[in-house]
Amino acid sequence: MSPNGLAPVAVDSSEVRRHGKLTCPAFQDFPRNAWYVVACSPEVKEEPLARRVLNTPVVLFRDENGQAVALFDRCPHRGLPLSMGRLKAGMVECRYHGFTFGGDGACRIIPSQEAVSAAIGVPSYPLVERYHWLWTWVGDPARADPSLIPDCSVLDSPDYSARTGAFLPFDCNAMLLLENLLDQTHISFLHPGAFDAGQAAAAPYRVVFEETTIRITREISNDQASLGLRFKFDAGAKLDRTLMSETFAPGLNVIHSMFRDPAHPELGERGSVSFFPITPVGPRACYHFSATANSRAGDPSLPAGYQEVMPTLAGSLGPLDQDKEALEAVQRLFDEIGPEAVEWSVKADAAALRLRQIIAGMAERERATERAQGLPEAVFAAS
After folding, report:
1. 228 or 242, greater pLDDT
2. Phi and psi at residue 135, in whole multiples of 5°?
3. Would you give the distance in Å from CA 138 to the centre of its chain?
4. Residue 146, CA atoms < 13 Å, CB-side half-sphere
């Protein structure tokens, strides 16, 4: 039995699974008491920004001190989204009747009268700006401990050159995207030539299960040299590669791709660490964020610190577009067939099946607590 009380997932060769909604990846519920990335820091500038986390509409803006804040995106007067308004002296002004709210959610101005009741306001959500992202918590604010934000500090390391990447909405459940990133056996087929030379699926691997973390490590020999060229390996080298995918439930995947030239061990290990925060938007929608830290050991000319790449990308993204196309097609078929859709799993899927259990368990424990306290059922729960 694992530390989180889950029985081991054993898949010897292949087996068919019919799912209830708790562990069906297209209808997965997610916990609210967790930190989720809601925006890249550069996205929050002069105008209010609308986002959604776990079916909660959120408006983001910066207050008079430049501090990013997150409020419930609905004016309590007549219900217009505050994100449709404008910023005024570090506050957000409703476009409908001019009610103006500070970063704490309190109403500060009602143009039609002088007095402002202290009762008028909107919920504000804990928000932490870290690693060039904005992390928010839409669950119980008393439990919003910033130390629970996953460690992405390599992005700030002087030994790496980090760049912020894409923000891309997906029309599928976040579980499908988390599984996609955890499972490296698909890359040779969905992204041919982009990430490997076709050996990833058959490469030997090991899996480590921790309480809310799953780590899959693959060792690949004689990998194509082109993948290591940006780290200053020789074009004709036959490289050894360690490919590790970690998922930190419920919303972050990290991929380490490290190369070595066995003919020149003095060159050391060089590669990249890529971070993919995945945010559940609704039962059939999620956000995909990314940032990559490239080893400066392979190329000392790389600048230290962050390079800001386009934080919002809507055009062609190559492999990301391929993921989006495939996962949205999977979601549409699940929507048509329902959670009783037949799904075969093989030995390599054991980690993904465990991840479903972990996230479903986190969400269900929350729901049980809410029911015991007489609170309404979470609005995100799949219908």
Report:
1. 242
2. -105, 130
3. 15
4. 9
